[in-house]
Each structure stands twice: as C-alpha cells, then as structure tokens.
Amino acid sequence: MWHDGRVTTTPELRTAVGPASVPGDAGLVRRQSGARAVYDLLRGRIIDGSLAPDARLTEPVLSAELGVSRTPVREAVRLLQAEALVVELPTGGVRVAPLDLADARRVYDVRARLEGLLARDACERATPDGVARLARLVTLMDAVRDHEDEVLRIGAQFHGEIEALADNRWGSALLRQIRGHVDRYRALAARRRVGTTDHVDEHRAVADAIASRDAAAAEAAMRAHIERSAALAEQSLRGAGSATDDLP
User: Fold this and answer.
1) Which residues on neighbouring strands pair with residue 6, listed in sequence order?
2) Is the pTM of this model over 0.85?
3) What is the rounded average pLDDT of the residues 65-89?
4) What is the reported pLDDT for 239?
5) Cα separation, 4 vs 192, whole angstroms
6) Which of 39, 98, 161, 206 could lock 221 by a disulfide, CB 3.0 to 4.6 Å apart?
C-alpha cells in the first residue's frame, strides 16, 4: 500500500512477487507473477488517486519499497505504459498520466458510444435472469447511495452485466482498452453523486429500457448516464485546478 507517497507491502504481496532469480521456466513464471502483482497494485492506486496525477515513479525506488527486484517492476511499468496510465519522462523514469478536461472529454465520448452500443445489443440478447440481475443491482445501488466505494463497485457490476448480456466481443475489447482511464474519471464523478439518487435513476432507466426490449431507449439512457458522469468529472477537475480550466 501507499502511505504519504511511499509504498509499503504485505507478506502476501512479497510472496506473490517473490525473488526474480529462479532459473529456467520456473524463474520466468515467477517473474511474470511478480510483475502482475506489482502492476495490479500500482494500477489500483493510480485509478483510486492514491498515486496522484504527475507523480514520478522510478524503478530503483519502487524496487526498494516493494522489496522486489527491478525486473517485475520494469515489466509492470511497461504494462502501465501500454495502457497510457503512465507516461515516460524525457529525463528517464515515468510519471502517472495527468488528468485533464480535454482527455476526459475524449474518454467519455468513446465510452458513451461503446456502452450505448452494448446497451442496445443487450436488449436483443437479455434473458429474464439477466434482466432480473440488473434490477437487483439497481436496488442495491439505491441502498448504498451514501457510500462512494459501494456505488462504484455496484455500478461497475451493472455495466459489466450489460456488457455480458450484449455479448459483443469487439465492443468489449475496445472498451477494455480504455478501462483504466474510464475508471479514473468515473471515481471523480462518483464523489459528486454521493447521497443523491441521480446515479440510481440513471441506471434504472437503462435497466427498464432493456427489460422493455426498447433498444433505442436503452442506448439513449446509457449515453445520457455517461454524459452526466462526464459533466460531473469535469466539475471535479475544474475544482481541482485542472491545467485546462480555460477550455470552454
């Protein structure tokens, strides 16, 4: 975990990442396992904001603080770079990718188009059990609307359920490519919804449209929900003093 900008680790993480010096195939498996553990840890902290935008990450520091060799750290950073969650510095090392209004708008535009399509597809393929699961998730979201972490967790389940119902592998693949960025901005938007029923009403509108097999309404409701989240994320960025506050 990260405390005051520094990484600490647990016995479980140390076991998972382990030494990278095991020879042969076993060593390769151990290194890959270690890289994945470091990647998951850093990615989670980038998404929840524990690692702030523009925070610098260096291999020697991460290696020492996590208690692992530089090999899994290097591989984990490469995975984060492939997702554009970290960006390389001209002087060496990397930093956490910044959050800004222009980027948020692009991410949300792509997300709205993709998830609107998935909601439309879900109307055609949803089973009665799938429709019931969506309704239960909306009910749960209403019950925990005062708790940001739970709203995020259940909201992610709701969107994942629609993706599963849609069964559109290309749409899912494209959405996965921007998932980390979607989740970063989603966390900003969620903070402004705590204690309100906005998110509940928006998700219910999508679920009801799917239950009614109204593809056009499902797509429109999903896009409206994501556009509302985009507006809330932008408000959060402006409140945080985004470098692009002068954008219209």
Assistant:
1) 3
2) no
3) 90
4) 79
5) 25
6) 206
